[in-house]
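Q&A log
Question type: sequence-to-structure
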Amino acid sequence: MTTLMLDREDGRIAYDVRGSGPLVICAPGMGDIRQTFRYLVPALVDAGYRVATFDIRGHGESDTSFRSFDDDAEASDIIALAEHLGSPAAVIGNSMGSAAGVIAAAQRPGLVTGLVLVGPFVRDPKVNLALRALMRAATAAPWAAPVWKSYLPSLYAGRKPADQAEFAARANTAMRRRGYAAAFSKTTHTSHDPAEAVLSSVKTPVLVVMGELDPDFPKPAVEASWIAERLDGEVLMVPEAGHYPQSQRPDLVNPAVVAFLNGHRA
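Response status: OK
Response body:
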């Protein structure tokens, strides 16, 4: 598949597009690459959607030259990509990508037609100051890549994708390139307060998809319910899945996402 580049003010965002029909933009999270949606994209294309996936700033094939790497920045890239492709879009965000999707929907309600929030961070987790300092130290640029490589497998609690070893190797190779660990380290400083602040402004249809074993949340079902309540959304709890249910349980996630999008299709 051909990688395309979207010019932004201080760098370029790598993306690709498949299919035809209403636009869907897939937004990855911190430390991830756009191929995290590799199982979901074909199902969306087969269902009659045009699907764009992109690498967030300083990740994958996108540039590291950006000055900001936070939720607001990713939200601005979602908006810019939809405008560039000339269509309103449903946004599927994973992890930090969910926060970006929420911000984009609040800022441009006419441009974002629906939200699928997968393993969503839309508020900061409650972490004591000592642990926060330890996390900051562990993700500093000099050792960010090996720390993330060591931590990543824990996020796949439950079933593992059949191609997980190949995918993880690709993501880890991308982070080891010059400048990318430093960009990842800057991304770890992101606060999700801006997303939480605009939850009440989001009026678009919402589906929350949460792995029952997601280790990023003490009680995944409680977090999913909290988000859905504030966004007047639906919840899909995915068994045998951690932080990446879109690749761990595509047998459950794909039909649910397609049904949700079809149900709110213009």
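Response note: The chain has one domain: 4-263.
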